[in-house]
Amino acid sequence: MEEQEEKKEQKKKIKVKMREQPPLERIKNFNEVPHGYSPEEAVEEATRCLSCKRPTCVDYCPVEVDIPGFLKLVKEGKFLEAAYKVKETNALPAVCGRVCPQEVQCESGCIVGKKGEPVAIGNLERFVADYEAEKGEVMIPEKPKPTGRKIAVIGSGPGGLTCAADLAMSGHQVTLFEALHKAGGVLIYGIPEFRLPKQIVAREVDYIKKLGVELVVNAVIGKLFTIDELFNEYGYDACFICIGAGLPMFMGIPGENLNGVYSANEFLTRSNLMKSYLFPNYDTPIKKGKRVAVVGGGNVAMDSARIAMRLGAEKVYLIYRRSEVEMPARKAEVHHAHEEGIEFLLLTNPTRYIDDGKGNVCAVECVKMELGEPDESGRRKPVVIKGSEFQMEIDIAIPALGTKANPLLTKTTTDLKLNKRGYIIAEEATGMTSKRGVFAGGDIVTGAATVILAMGAGRKAARATNEYLKWKYWDVSNLAKAI
Amino acid sequence: MFKILKKEELSEVITLFEIDAKHIAKKAKPGNFFILKIHEEGERIPLTIADFDRDKGTITSVFQKVGKTTYHLGTLNEGDYLSDVIGPLGNPSHIENFGKVVCVGGGVGIAPVYPITKALKEAGNKIISIIGARSKDLLFWEDKMRKVSDELIVTTDDGSYGRKGVVTIPLEEILKGDQMKATKKHVPSFEDREAVQDPSVNLVIAIGPPIMMKFVCKTTEKFNVKTIVSLNSIMVDGTGMCGACRVEVGGETKFACVDGPEFDGHKVDFDLLMKRLQMYLVEEKVAMDMYSGKM
Lengths: 483, 295
Fold this sequence. Notes:
The complex is a heterodimer of chains A (about 475) and B (about 300).
Chain A (H helix, E strand, L loop, with lengths): L1 H11 L10 H4 L12 H8 L20 H9 L3 H9 L5 H7 L21 H14 L15 E5 L3 H12 L3 E5 L8 H4 L8 H13 L3 E3 L10 H6 L5 E4 L4 E3 L15 H10 L17 E5 L3 H12 L4 E5 L11 H9 L3 E3 L2 E8 L5 E14 L5 E5 L5 E4 L2 E4 L3 E3 L1 H4 L27 E3 L2 H4 L4 H21 L5 H6 L1
Helix pairs in contact in A: 3-4, 3-7, 4-5, 5-7, 6-7, 8-17, 12-13
Chain B lengths: L1 E8 L4 E7 L1 H6 L5 E5 L7 E4 L2 E3 L4 E7 L3 H8 L5 E2 L1 E6 L10 E7 L3 H13 L3 E8 L8 H6 L3 E6 L6 E2 L3 H16 L6 H8 L5 E5 L2 H14 L3 E4 L15 E4 L2 E4 H4 L2 E3 L5 H8 L3 H14 L1
Parallel strand pairs in B: 9-10, 9-13, 10-11, 11-12, 13-14
Antiparallel strand pairs in B: 1-2, 1-7, 2-6, 3-4, 3-8, 5-6, 14-17, 15-16
């Protein structure tokens, strides 16, 4: 009896694993890697939740999902109700369940996690969202009374979608502008199919349209319309800018413009948005390398490496100048990359790309690094080991080094204050900028961050927009201090 | 969806479309380009805005059939729709009264050079235009260009029309003439006076195949005449996000889509541009072969 109790106790410490495609199989396709929980598995996992009286998991969620509330409903087998519960505060649960860095958010605050593995909140969020969609019982909340206010949301990534949904539910007439031909922002062009199926993004976008949001694709704001035109000619009362970061960074080393060197943004955009992995059935080509070197340690680097593998590479290297501990990527992605046979070259940095004489990259020269004193990011600074140069044959290189602010919109909105690096200065709690009626959030304010942080910014801006429309009060004196 | 309102075959391989895109027409300026995608599976290709009509709400595009997408585009007719049209993109041309300007358009590049020439003419510049093509049947818009130029020179590589040879030959003659005038120290005779009062060329605009732009720049460099070129690199999003269009200008990497498409031609690394334009030769052939099979 006691032994059984102990076993049960032991079991409680370990979460229910999500079944997934085996590595050797999945590197040959673009299908989603994890299969998702079955209803039984979901109930079993949700039962691990202690229903804490003062739940700390919620504190770590940027959009404050009622986690114990929805887990309780899962425990009871009320999966649809659980999905509605999540959707009260999160318009994109199927996305968040898949791409949020739960290990540093909700799951890091889970009490169960203090003594064992935390409750798999992300997996369960995904389960309830998928369950709702599969049952075809997606609930559309009742339309509120129209307020007669017009709001422009610029950028249809996670932040824009969240803000647009919230504002539509407040009864405003919302137009969501997207520069590309398809809505979803980074969810469409950035995150690959095997991590976030595009059908799910389309489903979420569709949901937001059903809430009454008007979607306008192919609209590059700053070029097609300026913000002032939206206010003065088209009668918008407020706008939220959530356009992402944009311009890819390069290292400035020789050979970066050789054929075969892709910015990660380009590699991902070709593959994900343009579906070039289906070339020639889709028209956009992509170079399929035999030996591919990806440079960087973030999620974008992991995604690029795993795409290169699926495109048929024999060897994919991941070159990172620090050690694995410092990698900013989600732990699950690093784990998946290892499993799929990507070779990590840690404490290594490229110094130049070598020309095959015809303008194509044929090798990369690297140096070895060692970790020195901590730098301003708190991580130990990598230092070059002299004389450690070596070369590797490659035919594709993908620097995934982050992005910098895209000036396309800000250039044409001169009364919008920017910081030295070109990002929009906005109040953290509200998204208020130096320009009356203009809110901003996401990567164009913070620099490259996560899906959920952009969603959090969208939620805050929606709340602040409602306040602004009520009182027409615009005080950004705090902002002046921040500058 | 964007409707094709008018189609005109300018030559066997060059087609003109007038596209219903009122918001783009309203904001378009000479030098801008746009991106189009034919259908769901299509690629995004950048094309220059060759003209626009704000009243009608249309933009005009002239394209040459070279690969799968442009051949497919050529099969579309008036009344057909394009799934996506995005623009206006890129920085507009800098238009002011420079004095005397030579506008050079080569091949399908005659189309983008036209709105710039027109705007420069309207700004009060004296315009000499040089348009060239491989042969007479590839030449178009001679009349349109003549209307916005004080002088128009036509060249064909094979001599089937206008002057035989490439555009750089008349260009060099014009610049040499300027140089000779400038070195004349004596008081001009009555006959020369008119010629001397004619100002020297202050600016050259050249749009066409990279090889043409390269040699125009080599020619004007000798005479130290500022030359603006418009670069047609491979693009995906056209808004600065991907960097596919990177070019080297004055030793620095620039994005043709947001930093250009116009650059100081004397600083452009044309050899790199030409190599980068060939990046997908193999894939382009695969796509074209498959498409030809379907046809």
